[in-house]
UniProtKB/TrEMBL annotation:
Domain Gfo/Idh/MocA-like oxidoreductase N-terminal, chain residue ranges per copy: 1-118
Domain named GFO/IDH/MocA-like oxidoreductase: residues: 127-235
PANTHER family cross-referenced by the UniProt entry: BILIVERDIN REDUCTASE A, GFO_IDH_MOCA-LIKE OXIDOREDUCTASE N-TERMINAL DOMAIN-CONTAINING PROTEIN
Full protein name: Gfo/Idh/MocA family oxidoreductase
Gene Ontology molecular function terms on file: nucleotide binding
Signal peptide start-end: none
Record-linked Pfam families: GFO_IDH_MocA, GFO_IDH_MocA_C3
Amino acid sequence: MKVGVIGCGYWGAKHVRVLSSLPEVSLVVAIDAQTERIEPLRRMYPSALCVTSLDEVIDLIDAAVIATPPRSHAPLAKRLLAAGKHVMVEKPMTASTAEARELVAMADEAGLTLATGHTFEHNAVVKHLRDMVAAEELGKIYYIDTARLNLGLYQPDVNVVWDLAPHDISIINMVLGSTPTAVSAWGASHAGTPFEDVAYLRLEYGAIGATANIHVSWLDPSKVRRVTVVGSQRMAVYDDMLDEGRLRIYDKGVQGAPLDGTVPMSYRYGGITAPHIPMTEPLSEVDRDFVQSAITGRTPQVDGRRGLAVVEVLEAAAESMATGRTVNLSQPAVV
């Protein structure tokens, strides 16, 4: 396949690197209006075609990865799908649920592949955690707590929720195998920015009786990338900042409340294990899955519907922050 990468900034340049290494890709086309981004790629990947406009190559390519600012995702994806091209869109897939639904419908009608770049759904640790939850190794899941914090990087066109929360929403949906039934959110803007730079989200998974709390921030002294899953039997912590032992399983818990309703006094303190999980580069898995899905016609691991599910939560969070109310979502989907 001949695959274009639209938008060759930090993340788009990584797609160019990965796609250039895939045997299924005969030509990589780097597309960016900023020549200062194109020229380094031209030197690093001499076999790639580097251009400044999609118009120059839209008839040449078979598929495209969109790695531009979020508000441009839907217009570009619609143009490519209308031209009969397979499309993979970086997160968030679109800036609204209406746009996301339109892309899903277009891809379905044309029989084209539509994938979303939620890299953590290709992460070996997240997959292992999903399998543990599905096998009920942690017992009944009470709640999931995530924190994605750092000092920066402020974005010029979206708030911290649309920038960082897609990662955690997709992780939680994947681990629980469901989507939320209700969303509430609070956010605040500091440092003179027009967008919220700190936010908290609460997701209710009514179908399975679990909840999730998401904390995202561009204004925190420490870089944190952590997911905590609390079950009735055991607990798990995925810390993406660790070099080794990123997933740790805690054999701890509360034995259960007495029949008289008093505060439980029986706690279980067991050992801590860190399973060995062979790691691969998630972005390589993302691009390989997209290309192979486009070639074979199978559904990609993270398809447009999974991207839509994340956008629904983001849009609900925006409504909740604006109104101060909990926003109910449609019936949960199995993901």
